[in-house]
Each structure stands twice: as C-alpha cells, then as structure tokens.
Amino acid sequence: MTTFYDEVGGHETFQKLVHEFYLGVAGDPPLKAIYPEEDLGPAEDRLRMFLEQYWGGPTTYSERRGHPRLRMRHVPYAVTPAQRDRWLLHMLNAVDTLDLDEQHDGMLRDYLTRAAYSLVNSWDD
C-alpha cells in the first residue's frame, strides 16, 4: 500500500520540510523562546519523526517516545494564538519549498493548520 509519505518523496521530503521550518523558527526570537532546548536539533528530529509516522512512514516516533499525545505534550507550554500564527507562518513557508502537487499540498496544509489551531491552550498574548 502506498502512503502519503511515499507519494510525496518519503524521508527526504519530510526532512526538508522540518529543516526549512526550523530555519524560520531560529530566526524568530518570540517563537524560538518557547522551545525548551537552545539547540533546535532535537526538536527538529522529534517533529520530523512525528510527521513521518503520521503520514504513513516509519513508526520511529512511537518506538522512541511512545504515543504522540500531541495536545498533552504541549500542555507545559503556553501556546497562544500569536504563537500559533508564527508557527503556521514558518511551517507553511516550509511547505512552499517542497513543490508538491496540488492535492498533496492541500492535504498537508489542511492538517498543519488544524493541528496548530488545536494546540492553542492560552489566550494571554
């Protein structure tokens, strides 16, 4: 069975997506401030593994970290609408670098947008 992961280019595509995203985060001090590690490398690895697994790739994320529990893992951090918007800006800019076909591009953007909105847990900017 072919998955979204396979159809869009597998590991290389997700590695590029997440790397481009974290280049944006690194240059955005208010957003970078919510990341627990100074070095964004571990966060980059976790996000790439999560997205790969979500879209039908290797299950490395769950093997190393357990169930994704996306909302629960973000509870310790105040995720505001402003941070959501900053996150989405960099993530959607990263999607722009992938040159996906219209259907895959739309599916990815839709998921990322819904996920970002679902993680807002603080209305204090």
UniProtKB/TrEMBL annotation:
GO terms for molecular function: heme binding; metal ion binding; oxygen binding; oxygen carrier activity. SUPFAM superfamilies: Globin-like (SSF46458). Gene3D superfamilies: Globins (1.10.490.10). The keyword RNA-binding does not apply. Keywords: Heme, Iron, Metal-binding, Transport. Its cofactor is heme. InterPro entries: GlbO/GLB3-like (IPR044203), Globin-like_sf (IPR009050), Globin/Proto (IPR012292), Globin_bac-like_CS (IPR019795), Hemoglobin_trunc (IPR001486). Belongs to the truncated hemoglobin family. Group II subfamily. PANTHER family: TWO-ON-TWO HEMOGLOBIN-3. This is Hemoglobin. It comes from Flexivirga oryzae. The lineage of its organism: Bacteria, Bacillati, Actinomycetota, Actinomycetes, Micrococcales.
